[in-house]
Amino acid sequence: MKLVFVDIDGVMMPLNEESFKSFVFNPIAVAMLNCLTGETGAHIVVSSRRCMDMELDQVQQIFADNCVHGEVIGRISHPLIFSPGKLSIAEPKGLAILRWLEMGLKVVNPERFVILDDELIPEYKDHQVVVDPTIGFVSMKFYDQARAILGRRVLCSL
User: Fold this and answer.
1) Whether pTM exceeds 0.90
2) DSSP assignment string, 56-67
3) What is the CATH number of domain 2-150?
């Protein structure tokens, strides 16, 4: 199975003041993601901190409402890390993705995966496409990078 870890802010929606008020994805980013999942057969895992308190069915509905055709099979959580006398912060995204992959291996067993995010995740730089957050996942350059990481869909032949 192939996976696409998808962030929302900066990837499916360019970062601007309006993007934090709703979950309305950029239609070009949706078309690019639909092409990517359609061409590669990849499934979607949502890696957005905005969804960390949502149930999977709520996240699936957001993607369906935005006409995303790829199957959303999971979301990573970002538990808070508490330190005495310090502010609590969300677990780093790279660690959250690693935890999801380790737990998911029993069920999913990904052959390849790509991470679409607007922040560099150093531990996964060979599996990541760093998207320009001012435009989102709308560039053929980003699409081609993701497509190269995932490879083509393998179809059975008779």
Assistant:
1) no
2) HHHHHHHHHHTT
3) 3.40.50
Question: What is the residue type of 154?
Answer: V
User: In angstroms, rounded to a whole number, what is the distance separating the alpha carbons of residues 88 and 9?
Assistant: 21
CA 34 to CA 115: how far, in whole Å? 15
Dihedrals φ, ψ of 119, to 5°? -120, 140
Domain boundaries, the chain: 2-150
Using one digit for the tens of pLDDT, what is the confidence trace for 84-118? Answer: 666 556 678 888 888 888 886 556 667 899 999 99
CB half-sphere exposure, 147, CA atoms < 13 A: 15
Distances (CA, A) of 137 to 33, 78, 96: 8, 22, 22
